[in-house]
UniProtKB/TrEMBL annotation:
GO molecular function (one): ATP hydrolysis activity
Residue ranges occupied by any ABC transporter domain in the UniProt entry: 5-230
Domain of life: Bacteria
Keywords noted in UniProt: ATP-binding, Nucleotide-binding, Transport
Organism: Robertmurraya siralis
Matches recorded under SUPFAM superfamilies: P-loop containing nucleoside triphosphate hydrolases
Gene3D superfamilies: P-loop containing nucleotide triphosphate hydrolases (3.40.50.300)
Keyword Transport assigned: yes
Pfam families: ABC_tran
Protein name: ABC transporter ATP-binding protein
Length: 288
């Protein structure tokens, strides 16, 4: 099974916002980073993957299965980690283990104990006394304890201090040694993905702009800098968006080869970060 998640022509409309005709494949055994500004449609898409929202049109499949006929089976195989508190605040981890464990066929007490130990989490303290980082670790420990094949994370690093963010990312890298495990990770902190993502899916205003490997993104997208005298109707077609300044122009391209062939040494070509791509795509023209 190559794709763990498949969304085909998925549409969901709300008053004043919609995600439209989303086509998205999440490949097994890799980390896919899901990027976009706040309000771009990341959480809506994730909620449809989790069956918390039903699409108005289109098809959502996980592990090749449909929620209508295989909901329990799908949910057995997913772990969900997000930045809010999913648990009853007054409960401690011992209570949560007792409640959550029996709900999963593949619940493993040994794995749970291992991660509680590794994450240095207290078993007897109420969840409400945990820091945001500790709550995140508790959520992840529970997902791993029932051997989730797909871990979906919605903005897991938002609001965490930089040291804990690095720790969490290192931990996710460790988890990916298991080639059957897949992580789908939504974030607006794009630097997090430079370290761990294999694929990047970019959503903007409810539409998927691209879904490509990190290597592919690095090979195709670049920032181009040069004098404004180089710009005219023929040369501007190579750029998604151009910013002019008295000192020259800076532009984003997704066609490095044509830029090199057209401008030669007259321009400077630099690697575009994911943040650069998001910034320039806003209001830019995308070349499909």
């Amino acid at each position: 099974m190559e794709n763990v998640v498949e969304l085909k022509n998925v549409t969901k409309k709300f008053k004043g916002f919609s995600v439209e005709n989303i086509n998205l494949d999440v490949k097994q055994g890799f980390v896919t980073g899901f990027i976009g500004a706040n309000g771009a449609g990341k959480s809506t898409t994730i909620k449809m993957m989790m069956n918390l929202l039903r699409p108005d049109a289109g098809e959502v499949k996980l592990f090749g299965l449909d929620y209508r006929t295989h909901e329990k089976e799908i949910k057995e195989r997913i772990g969900f980690v997000y930045d809010g508190n999913v648990f009853f605040e007054g409960l401690n981890l011992k209570d949560i283990k007792r409640i959550v464990g029996p709900a999963y066929k593949r619940w493993d007490n040994q794995v749970f104990d291992h991660y509680i130990d590794q994450f240095e989490l207290p078993l007897n303290k109420a969840i409400k006394t945990f820091s945001k980082g500790m709550q995140m670790k508790a959520s992840l420990a529970l997902a791993l304890s029932h051997h989730a094949e797909l871990i979906i994370m919605d903005e897991p690093t938002a609001g965490l201090d930089p040291i804990f963010r690095r720790e969490l990312l290192a931990l996710l890298q460790e988890l990916m040694v298991d080639e059957n495990r897949t992580i789908f990770f939504s974030t607006h902190i794009t630097t997090d993905l430079d370290r761990i993502a294999d694929y990047i899916t970019f959503i903007q205003s409810g539409k998927i702009i691209f879904n490509r490997s990190v290597h592919d993104v690095a090979e195709n997208y670049a920032l181009v800098k040069g004098g404004t005298d180089l710009l005219d109707r023929d040369t501007e077609k190579f750029f998604i968006q151009v910013h002019r300044a008295p000192t020259g122009f800076e532009a984003l391209t997704d066609n490095i080869k044509d830029v090199q062939n057209t401008f030669g040494d007259a321009v400077v070509i630099e690697k575009a970060s994911l943040e650069d791509i998001m910034y320039y795509m806003k209001g830019g023209v995308h070349h499909v």
